[in-house]
Write a structure and sequence with these properties.
heterotrimer, A mainly alpha, B alpha/beta, C mainly alpha, A: mainly alpha, MetI-like fold, 0% strand, C: mainly alpha, membrane (chain A), Oligopeptide_permease_AppC (chain A), ABC transporter permease (chain A), cell membrane (chain A)
Chain lengths: 306, 333, 316
């Protein structure tokens, strides 16, 4: 079809030269650049991101960074820090620095895997509940109420004690009682987004329901999910450390930051061998703090107040 | 070209869309068990016919059910009762899957150009996606198709690479229009397409819609709360009040001689271009629109009607048959 | 309002049954049952089978659930595998110290959080705000057991200012002063965690309120900035906090396990750890259900309180 000679050509030219008399165009700043700028304005968030990346690097490169194998028994027991063992050795003779590095790796693995699991599951359930509503929504809300009624630490401890403590069980159990919060979050966003005209337009254009949900609704609900997931990594690492501290998480001989503090419950370790627990405690604090700052920065940058 | 002329040019009077006794109700839950149900009767027993090539204006105050009506016809809402026939095909109970092939023949333009475009999707992708989903264009042709569309609605090709937030309201509405015409549909439901725009832009968009109608032989259901926009574009006008049609006539007839008091009041609120014509006694609409969950007995308009009689409080008037239909016991002369 | 409360209560009913069902299924996943636990080589196999039959362990699962639920509704939580005492009695003995700790920590935490949050909001984006924000994040990020151990080491062992564990001094008088001195460290640890989280909410809520028009009006009337903040802003800012305090209950109950372990506090948390270590499942389940019911009840109360305080909420 030819448009020549059509009466609207005139105002087409007008808009090409930007003469449409309305409010000026908003500053053309790419979304990603805007997010980056806001994020780095938050100094603590920038610090958190650097620390996080550093810790992830340590976790990834653990086999090359650790001076010893984490379970290798060296010739000195309970030795205080020295040149040979920067952070000393524990009661069995294992190098503390090496165990710290591997412990960081374990904590990060559990943190990321748990969050990935419950965020994926919670997001799908939340999408379905928000989009379809009615009975599905009702059932989800009640299930959420049930799951969230159990104090997290207690139910997780009970389940781990029943199922047995190993990394995959811990990940599943930690995730099992966290997905409802994400599902509720996503459901809330979907409820408002599905009333947007661009979603109606999608339906009117004959898009399939999965296309509408995953391409047109989900991307617009992503900001609060990302923020929540980042805070989730922090709180999961803290929970896992707590479990391991109580002796119900990652168990010896495998190193984890939490179980290194388990031994500090003995008075000798606490008062005379600080190198066994102080560094591990600080690393947990550092990791959790860093993820929390990143989460806070993302919340500001993505403007996802929830 | 005026709508009148378009019709006189011998467009067939073939029926494109028939709406029969359509009802769209929404439950409102209350009570301890959420059991004490009331219904918002957004669309309450409406019968309409759209002929090919015409523009039917649908006018009423906000909350009268006109947008719900448009969305129900598009089957974005599920009708509670009645029938919708599009090209003699009963689509009332169609699933979204069954509706998919029909979507290329009926489209919609939305009111708020800021909400009708997905903020995360570039204009090019927003216009290409429907073509790909409906397999209407080879991947290689998509670029050309989209460019042609942008050209048609008066936007530069470079617009395709941008995100919605980079455009003004008027430009966005052009994109919304491009999306609605991309299938070359027969029917377009225009849900207050200019209400959210500046007055100066409104005229441009209305002109664009009229030009496209002539070029593409479109039929419009044009929804608006202001009678002004409707006058310019419509062949016929239907006036809606609390879920019902209260008057339906050819545009010039309705403006010259409204039969329903509500229409008269709407016309009074619309300033005629010629001040000397302001001889008509000025009357204004008073009071709020009653709840459509609990419409008044008798004539729904009677609490606000300046000419109310006893009969109006008791008995609900029916829409008369014929060219100029009105639902009033005592139609104006 | 009455309608809202009734509806809210009705919603709690299916949730309660869900809690019991989930707990029951969990208990069934646990290895061992009361009869296996009684194992004693002197008891012949037939006797065990008889006992099994008597206890209804051969019945279908749903029968067992219904019977167990019946007992639960009469307040019977079963008997401990290790001490053979009724679980409800065990919980009753230990709940006091836990509540003492939890309620004190909550109060202290909020008392710390309100001034910090308000100052942070009033001096928004100042250096002071950054310091306060940083501190609040430190509070939420520090592992409670690490902080606890650190405090025990510092205050208890190095400085010898405070007792390091238990609720009273062994062989001491057990007076109120004694208990309070034992409470200081655990309450400090829990309080810090709670305060850290609350500061964020109070700050956000306060920032919202400070931008409202009615505060501009109050200032225009010539009220002093302090009165504007304290009287008009704070009162409105604290309403949303009520809802968040309710959400704190499950965290307090969960957190008490670690705190009580660190400070050897004889409460529910320690009972939980003892039950886990001795694989005492009836006690564990009893604790679990009791905790869930406490959470359910407090959620109900906070919802209703919130609705009563905030006139903006409409009850459909």
């Amino acid at each position: 079809m030819s448009a020549t000679g059509m009466p609207w050509r005139g105002d087409a030219a007008a808009s090409e030269t930007g003469q449409e008399h309305e409010q000026p165009l908003p500053g053309i700043e790419h979304y990603a650049r805007q997010v980056r700028r806001k994020f780095f304005k938050h100094k603590l968030a920038a610090w958190g991101l650097i620390t996080t990346l550093l810790l992830i690097g340590i976790g990834l490169l653990a086999p090359w960074l650790a001076p010893n194998s984490p379970n290798e028994i060296t010739d000195v027991f309970a030795a205080s820090p020295s040149l040979a063992h920067w952070l000393g050795t524990d009661g069995v003779g294992r190098d503390v620095l090496s165990r710290l590095i591997y412990g960081t790796r374990v904590s990060l693995i559990i943190g990321f895997a748990t969050v990935a699991l419950y965020v994926a599951f919670g997001t799908i359930i939340g999408l379905l509940a928000g989009y379809y509503g009615r009975w599905f929504d009702m059932v989800l809300m009640r299930i959420t109420d049930i799951f969230l009624s159990f104090p997290y630490m207690i139910i997780v401890l009970v389940m781990v004690s029943i199922l047995g403590a190993n990394i995959s069980t811990i990940i599943i159990v930690l995730a099992l009682f966290k997905w409802p919060a994400i599902a509720m979050l996503v459901r809330g966003s979907v409820l408002s987004i599905k009333e947007m005209d661009y979603v109606r337009a999608g339906v009117a254009l004959g898009y399939s329901t999965p296309r509408v949900m995953f391409r047109h609704i989900l991307p617009n609900a992503l900001s609060p999910i990302i923020v929540n997931a980042t805070f989730g990594v922090a709180s999961t690492i803290l929970s896992e450390a707590g479990l391991s501290f109580l002796g119900m998480g990652v168990t010896s001989p495998q190193a984890s930051l939490g179980n290194m503090l388990h031994d500090a419950q003995s008075l000798t370790v606490l008062t005379e061998q600080q190198w066994l627990w102080l560094p591990a405690g600080f690393i947990i604090l550092l990791t959790v703090l860093a993820f929390n700052f990143v989460g806070d920065g993302l919340r500001d940058a993505l403007d996802a107040r929830s | 070209m005026t709508p009148q002329a378009a019709e006189d040019q011998g467009h067939s009077r073939q029926q494109l869309l028939q709406v029969e006794r359509l009802k769209t109700y929404y439950p409102v839950r209350s009570g301890v068990f959420g059991n004490a149900r009331k219904h918002i009767r957004a669309v309450d027993d409406v019968t309409l016919t759209l002929h090919e090539g015409e523009t039917l204006g649908l006018v009423g105050e906000s909350g009268c059910g006109k947008s719900t009506m448009g969305r129900t016809i598009m089957r974005l809402e599920h009708p509670s009762a009645g029938r919708i026939l599009f090209e003699n095909e009963d689509i009332t109970q169609y699933s979204q899957r069954q509706l998919k092939p029909l979507r290329t023949r009926m489209q919609m333009i939305f009111q708020d150009p800021y909400a009708s475009l997905n903020p995360r999707i570039r204009i090019f992708d927003a216009l290409a996606e429907p073509l790909i989903v409906h397999k209407l264009a080879e991947r290689s042709e998509v670029q050309r198709e989209v460019n042609a569309l942008l050209h048609l609605v008066g936007l530069p090709h470079s617009a395709g690479a941008r995100y919605p937030h980079e455009f003004s309201g008027g430009q966005r509405q052009r994109i919304g229009i491009a999306r609605a015409i991309l299938f070359r549909p027969k029917l377009i439901v225009c849900d207050e397409p200019v209400s959210a725009l500046d007055v100066s832009i409104q005229a441009q968009i209305l002109n664009l819609l009229q030009d496209l109608q002539a070029e593409l032989k479109l039929t419009y259901l044009f929804i608006s709360h202001g009678i002004g926009a409707v006058k310019q574009i419509s062949t016929r006008i239907a006036v809606m009040y609390l879920g019902r049609i209260v008057e339906l006539a050819r545009t010039e007839q309705l403006f010259r001689q409204p039969k329903h008091p509500y229409t008269e009041l709407l016309l009074n609120a619309y300033p005629p271009p010629d001040p000397t014509l302001r001889s008509r006694k000025k009357m204004m609409l008073h009071g709020d629109v009653p709840s459509s969950a609990d419409p008044p007995r008798g004539c729904r308009f009677h609490p606000r009607c300046p000419y109310v009689q006893e009969r109006c409080r008791q008995e609900e008037p029916l829409l008369t048959e014929g060219e100029h239909a009105a639902a009033c016991h005592y139609p104006l002369a | 309002m009455g309608n809202y409360i009734a509806r809210r209560l009705l919603i709690a009913v299916p949730v309660f049954f869900g809690i019991t069902l989930l707990s029951f299924l969990l208990m069934n996943m646990a290895p061992g049952n009361p009869v296996d636990m009684l194992i004693n080589p002197n008891i012949p196999q037939e006797m065990l089978e008889l006992k099994r039959e008597q206890l209804g362990l051969n019945d279908p699962l749903y029968m067992q659930y219904v019977r167990w639920l019946g007992g639960l509704l009469r307040g019977e939580l079963g008997y401990s595998f290790s001490s053979f005492a009724p679980v409800s009695q065990l919980i009753g003995e230990r709940i006091g110290p836990t509540l003492l700790l939890a309620v004190s920590s909550l109060l202290i935490g909020i008392l710390i959080a309100i001034p910090i949050g308000v100052i942070s909001a009033v001096y928004q984006n100042s250096r002071l705000d950054y310091v306060m924000t940083g501190l609040s994040f430190l509070g939420t990020s520090v592992p409670p057991f690490f902080l606890g151990l650190g405090l025990i080491y510092l205050m208890g062992i190095e400085l010898k200012w405070l007792p390091t564990g238990g609720i009273t001094t062994l062989g001491g008088t057990g007076g109120i002063g004694d208990i309070i001195s034992h409470m200081i460290l655990p309450v400090a640890v829990m309080g810090v965690t709670i305060a850290g989280k609350k500061v964020r909410y109070i700050r956000a809520s306060m920032v919202d309120v400070l931008h409202q028009d009615y505060l501009r009006t109050a200032r225009a009337k010539g009220l002093s900035e302090f009165r504007v903040t304290a009287k008009h802003a704070l009162r409105n800012a604290l309403i949303p906090i009520i809802a968040v305090i309710g959400a704190e209950i499950p965290l307090l109950l969960g957190g008490s396990i670690i705190i009580e372990q660190v400070f050897q506090w004889p409460g529910i948390g320690q009972l939980t750890m003892e039950a886990i270590l001795s694989r005492d499942y009836p006690t564990l389940m009893g604790l679990n259900i009791a905790a869930a019911c406490i959470v359910l009840t407090t959620n109900l109360i906070t919802d209703i309180m919130y609705a009563a305080v905030d006139p903006r909420i409409s009850y459909r």
